[in-house]
Amino acid sequence: AQSVAQPEDQVNVAEGNPLTVKCTYSVSGNPYLFWYVQYPNRGLQFLLKYITGDNLVKGSYGFEAEFNKSQTSFHLKKPSALVSDSALYFCAVRAALLSGSARQLTFGSGTQLTVLP
Amino acid sequence: GAGVSQSPRYKVAKRGQDVALRCDPISGHVSLFWYQQALGQGPEFLTYFQNEAQLDKSGLPSDRFFAERPEGSVSTLKIQRTQQEDSAVYLCASSREWEGAFFGQGTRLTVV
Predict the structure, then answer these.
(1) pLDDT tens-digit profile of A59-111?
(2) Cβ–Cβ gap A101/B58 under 8 Å
(3) Distance in Å, alpha carbon of B10 to nearest chain A alpha carbon
(4) Can you tell me the distance from the alpha carbon of A22 to that of A88, in angstroms, rounded to the nearest whole number?
(5) I want to staple A104 with a disulfide (CB 3.0 to 4.6 A). Which of A37, B12, B27, B45 is the partner?
């Protein structure tokens, strides 16, 4: 079974400050890891992914995430937050092994990010 | 089209009514997924298709839920005899193998 934990329901940060949204995962074998963002009444928008290679992954809108295998973490980061970054963020995992049941993404419960002006 | 398209965007159904939700995936994406998202929660997996084959339906909550993708492109999620607990946003996603899933905007189903 695969699972994702996002330990913070809510993260508040001042505009211009760095932000971190935490994610830890559990999966059999090597993970594929993803971050998605959701604005109100919208679907999920892909931000970035880790498949293999460099542990620091850069994505859309200045976001990046660091894969840490020993800590089974994939925290989302941004050096300088914008008010427009305020949204609901989801971390997701799937196993790298290809099998019918492994292709689905398993999502965390989400973290509401609020950037204060 | 450029993205995953879902219709209708909003659906209000009376309890006991049958509903059908449509998903048009990105052209060329063989994998198609349905997820259910309750308010303030993460999406929960319902079912997965590879082309027209339904390879995993372990997430379907009851036999009132049925999904099909007869020609390997458009998919329909059908819910029979809707109940209030079926109220949620239903998300469709498509993907190639490893690049992650691209999601539609979802259908918000409200059962009254």
Answers:
(1) 989 999 999 999 999 999 999 999 999 999 999 998 876 655 567 889 999 99
(2) yes
(3) 10
(4) 13
(5) B45
DSSP states along B29-85: --EEEEEEE-TTS--EEEEEEETTEEEE-TT--STTEEEE-TTSS-EEEEESS--GG
Q: What is the DSSP letter of A16?
A: T
Chain A contact set for B105 (CB, 8 A): 42-43
Contacts of A63 (CB under 8 A, 6+ apart): A35, A47, A48, A76, A77, A78
The tokens 């092994």 sit on which residue?
A97
Q: pLDDT (tens digit, 9 = 90+) per residue, A7-54?
A: 999 999 999 999 999 999 998 888 999 999 999 877 899 999 998 889
Question: Residues B15-39, buried b or exposed e (16+ Cβ, 10 A)?
Answer: eeeebebebbbbeebbbbbbbbbee
CA–CA separation, A5 and A109 (whole Å): 7
pLDDT (tens digit per residue) in B14-72: 999 999 999 999 998 999 999 999 988 899 999 999 999 999 999 999 999 999 999 99
B58 to A109: CB separation less than 8 angstroms, yes or no: no
Backbone conformation region of residue A68, classed left if phi is above 0, alpha if psi is from -120 to 50, else beta: beta
In this complex, do B43 and A107 lie within 8 Å of one another by their Cβ atoms? Answer: yes
CA distance B69 to B52: 5
Pairing of strands A87-95, A31-38: antiparallel
Q: Given A51, A100, A106, which is nearest B98 (Cβ)?
A: A51
